[in-house]
Amino acid sequence: MAYDIETKCIHLEHKETTCDKSGAISFPIYQTATFAHLGLGQSTGYDYSRLQNPTREQVEKIVANLEGGVDAVAFSSGMSAIAAVMELFSPGDHLIVDEDLYGGSVRLFFSISSKNGVEITRVNLCKENPEPYIKENTKAIFIETPTNPMMNVMDIQKIAEITKKNHLLLIVDNTFLSPYFQTPLKLGADLVIHSGTKYLGGHNDTIAGFVVSGAEETAEKIRYIIKTTGAGLAPFDCWLILRGMKTLAVRMEKAQENAIQLANWLKERPEVVRVIYPGLEEHPGHEVMKKQASGFGGMLTFEVTSKALVEQILKKVKLIQFAESLGGVETLITYPLTQTHADVPPEDLAKNGITDRVLRLSVGIEHIKDLINDFEQAFG
């Protein structure tokens, strides 16, 4: 029987795939490094937790099911997940990546991947066709949508048509929307990446990453990479993600509800120059989002009139917390210039519109009146 996504966040569709036979409602934490064998050539299906662990297997199956993938692999962080995907490529390979990406991804591409001989070209993929940038050695296109922090929206299906025609992989970081609002594999992507720390976990209490594959061949390669490099998610952290995902649907809906109201409230403030949220009709990616996603999410970015006002807001917020993360039940405000994008070259920041007046907001599930009141006193 096929379940709706709210149910998939909590239950596997095929219970026989789980190894636990105890009837425990909360899936057990298999806190073990190794597993005993019954005899030579006889195995329980588990050998060593670097290779696989029942708790990790459970969270991977649920994430794969949510994304509609053939397999998901749980990593120790979102960055370790991206680093593993980059191991699919060899020296001399070429990748096209979007210009506006999380600063950690930019750092990885240009300090590690480039050092290892992978050529990277940055293109504004919400405005430009990637096809003219494709070369004989091009192997993949990497995007986020919406992007971090400028909330640019890529047309996944349109880019997928180009990658398929040119026999390239399309890799989509789906952290901002989660599989509750967007499933890139169904739109033609080949690999989906998540920082599970964010919406999947949802409580700012663990760090995790996922790679979801749309094809068995790619899935096998990712499994070999995690087996070799050993960056698998620990059992207790897997359990925290399992627990967090049970409320993914209700959290995403409430965060979006609050984000829409906050975006409209911020638009009316004289101190705010612009509000960037795909749920606003004036956002250039609004119609694309309506086509490819079932919601607009809880992330928004806004720009105020001065750096001095930025400093004032960050000092005066009380309920809203000044912290570098997103996707939790708590509302967090981030200053990309010195936090998420501190290692991005100044010329790239300027090109993407990330100024010293830009703030990113991860809207939580608090009462909207309390969030507005906090901003009112912070704006002063």
Biggest sheet layout: 7 strands, mixed
Shape: globular
As laid out across the biggest beta sheet, the strand order is 1-7-6-5-4-2-3
CATH class descriptor name of the largest domain: Alpha Beta
The share of residues in helices is 25-40%
The CATH architecture term of the largest domain is 3-Layer(aba) Sandwich
CATH topology of the largest domain: Aspartate Aminotransferase, domain 2
> Averaging pLDDT over every residue, what do you get?
95
Report the order of strands and helices.
HHEHEHEEHEHEEHHHEHEHEEHEH
Query: CATH H level of the largest domain: which superfamily?
Result: Type I PLP-dependent aspartate aminotransferase-like (Major domain)
Characterization of this structure:
The chain is an alpha/beta fold and 380 residues long. The protein has two domains: 5-245, Aspartate Aminotransferase, domain 2 (3-Layer(aba) Sandwich), CATH 3.40.640.10; 248-379, Alpha-Beta Complex (Aspartate Aminotransferase, domain 1), CATH 3.90.1150. It has 13 helices and twelve strands. The protein has helices spanning 5-8, 54-67, 78-86, 103-113, 156-165, 178-181, 216-229, 235-245, 248-267, 286-292, 307-316, 346-352, 368-379, and strands at residues 71-75, 94-98, 119-123, 138-144, 169-173, 191-195, 209-213, 272-276, 299-304, 321-322, 332-334, 358-362. α3 packs parallel to α4 (103-113) and α11 (307-316) crosses α13 (368-379). It is globular.
